[in-house]
Amino acid sequence: MPRLWLHNAWTEHMVDRMDLLTRDDIDDHLFGTKRLVWLARDGDALVLPGPVPGAFLAHVARHTGIRPDRVHVVAPDADILTQGVLHSAHVLGRLRELVTPDWEFRPYIHDRGAEILAQELGLVTGSRFMAEGGAELLNSKVVFRALAAGAGFAVPDGIACRTSEDLVRTLRRLLATHKSVILKRDRAVGGHGNTVITTEPGLEGTGALRTIVLDDAADHGQVLEETGLTATHAPLGEVVLEVFHPGCTSVYVEVDCPERGEPVVLNGGRLRIDRHPPVFAGLVLPPGSVPGPAWERFTAEALRLARLIRDLGYRGPASIDAVIDQAGDVWFNEVNARMGASTHLHHIAETLVGPHWTDSHVLVSRVNVRAPALDRLLPALGERGLAWDPRRRRGIVIASDATASAGTLEYVVLAHDHEEAELLEDRLTAVLSHHDR
Q1: Cis ω for the linkage preceding 277 (within 30 of 0)
Q2: Distance CA 370, CA 410 (A)
Q3: How confident is the model at residue 437 (pLDDT cuts 50, 70, 90)?
Q4: Which position among 317, 353, 420, 424 has the lowest Cβ density within 10 Å, counted as fewest Cβ atoms?
Q5: For residue range 374-416, what is the model confidence (pLDDT) as tens digits?
């Protein structure tokens, strides 16, 4: 049965204020759109904002066995697949020629915009919870805190704020006993909209694009300006204000909530964080340096949370995120009820190694890496013995390619252990540095 893949990320239902997205924000979004190619099979259709470079499609095809001429790519050359773009003659007209009611529908996020498109194409999507915006509900940080706290999950001390009064009173209470808090916009993605507020100069605000250092904990002017909250409403959207745990490790588990049966853990790992700025840079699967007892507590609770969202009616993949502090305590911070940054990585590992790949391998990824065009880089990887070698069962593949538009890519290292992965990554860095001269 053919599948319709839709990369509808950063859309009207995921972001509170699309009009505030910068060019850099949009470029970050476009960087990941080509990951879906790794999930495609012959006969599938992919709706992506822009075209897939031929060199990248050929690279994926060599590893997955797809035939590029049998994968239908519908690319309107748009920044974001808004509903206006999806229902244009270029997209909807082409899909009506390709798609029949027996196709499977696989959107990045099954939001209301995706549901409306499915209805236009006569596709049956199943869950009424999803059709009514249930995935969007779960992606809300405000809703997540209420659901998680009510079900007994550990969430950082704090509150969801809708007014300036909520914010000022909560900020005053938290800073009376903690040096740092983090401010999160309700509907934002990839760390965008996260700001650390601290009274400690020099603090590394991991996971936030911005840090506000307060000389006086009672000076709330900068924070109010950042949120836009007023005494009566939230013109830029609600925010979550909660305690920030310095030196923590960010972890995730990706689960699948099937139509029938219990949720299952697909993969899990820790986030790699760059230093400047201290934001998401890739993943390590399995997590490696995370203490075993803390990881076991996290995965057990994550599976319990997966059962909760499945009972509500959610179906499909979801990533459950938490931080583990220096004391080993686990604090849950959000559910991403959609595909995640590990969905394609897990598929790559299953394709190259097999369904039980974590028994024998580790995976390390890095995003937004400066690199030359693939037609120059791939031969260099082959010459230096860095490309994926099915005989030795180790090596590097390219997970997403934006070298033509932004000069960057995402790579994946698959190795037998973390030491071997680190060695391969160091050798790749040397190759990239040589090409960057």
Answers
A1: yes
A2: 9
A3: low
A4: 420
A5: 999 999 999 999 999 999 999 999 999 999 888 999 999 999 9
Return the number of other C-beta atoms located less than 10 Å from residue 377's C-beta. 25
User: Among 228, 239, 161, 164, which Cα is nearest to 194's?
Assistant: 239
- Helix 374-383 to helix 418-435 angle (10° resolution) is 130
Helix and strand numbers, DSSP H then E, in the chain: 14, 17
Distance separating alpha carbons of residues 222 and 112, to the nearest angstrom: 35
pTM over 0.90? The answer is yes
- Beta bridge partners of residue 413, listed in sequence order: 364, 396
Query: What confidence tens digit (pLDDT) does each residue in 17-51 have?
Result: 778 777 877 777 777 889 999 999 999 999 999 99
**Weakest mean pLDDT among 23-37, 66-80, 321-335, 402-416:** 23-37
Tokens 């390709």 locate to 98
> What are the angstrom distances between the C-alpha of 429 and each of 25, 323, 384?
26, 29, 12
Q: Read off φ and ψ for residue 423, nearest 5 degrees.
A: -65, -45
Distance CA 231, CA 166 (A): 9
Report the distance separating Cα 82 and Cα 85, nearest Å.
5
Domains and CATH numbers, the chain: 3-125 (no CATH), 157-243 (3.30.1490), 342-437 (3.30.310)
Q: Determine what percent of the chain falls in helix, strand and coil, rounding each to the nearest 5.
A: 35, 25, 40
What tokens does 388 get? 């994926």
